[in-house]
Write a structure and sequence with these properties.
The chain is of the alpha+beta class and about 240 residues long. About 30% of the residues lie in helices and about 30% in strands. It folds into two domains: about 5-75, Orthogonal Bundle (Arc Repressor Mutant, subunit A); about 75-225, Chorismate lyase-like (Chorismate lyase, 3-Layer(aba) Sandwich), CATH 3.40.1410.10. It has helices spanning about 5-20, 35-40, 45-55, 85-90, 110-115, 155-160, 165-170, 190-195, and strands at about 60-65, 65-70, 75, 95-105, 125-135, 135-145, 175-185, 205-215, 220-225. Strand 8 and strand 9 (about 220-225) form a beta hairpin. It is globular, with a radius of gyration of 19 Å.
Amino acid sequence: MNRGEPAYLRIRKDMLQKISSGIYKHGDFIPSEQKLCDSYGVSRTTIRMTINSLIEDGYMTIVRGRGTKITSTKLRCSLSNVMSFTDALNQQGMKTSLREVRIQKVFPPADVAKKLGIQADEPVFEIYRVRDADDEPISIHYSYIPCKYLPDYDQELFVEFQSLYRLLEERYNIQIQVSEDNISALKASKEEAKVLKLNVNDPVLFIERCAYDVNDRIIEYNKTSIRGDRYSQMITMRKRMN
């Protein structure tokens, strides 16, 4: 584990690895708070912060009187190749372009700071994009990246590179290596319907992502809403051979 990041994030990654590897299976109850404190050498506050973040993301649920149980309320996938949404569309033969881009430096909301593992007073770039595929709006993106990773960033750079991950790699030598995605099927809000040219309550694919670089740093927290009638994501799963 990377000792330079907050303890609850290190423990969260370890617990997610135990879920993905089958050590913690669907329906299992995790060890008690005290056992987890002893195992990881941290306080109850840290363990509770870790468990609460996993509950919020749909990996666990509390069963009153029994403990905390592993759930499968959300589809979670580990893709073999992490790519930007632009590259994914291009691979499907679509012509992509940016319909709208807005970039501002802000102090992150509490939930964003928590996802990025930073303090609420550390500034981030909030990057809002509406992307077209074949000249029709297909997706809305909100990306949050700590300003320290993009020291000279401006809107012209993004327009030049089009793809955020390409910009990170070619301009700042930051290569996204791993992403942790939560994928949900939702109904379009009024704002989403207006931007994506849908009816309110039409289906949208919502993807929430934390992207890590080769040094295991959280570089980006992203929320993407995609038209459900124009995009699908294929996940290939292989049986583990023991």
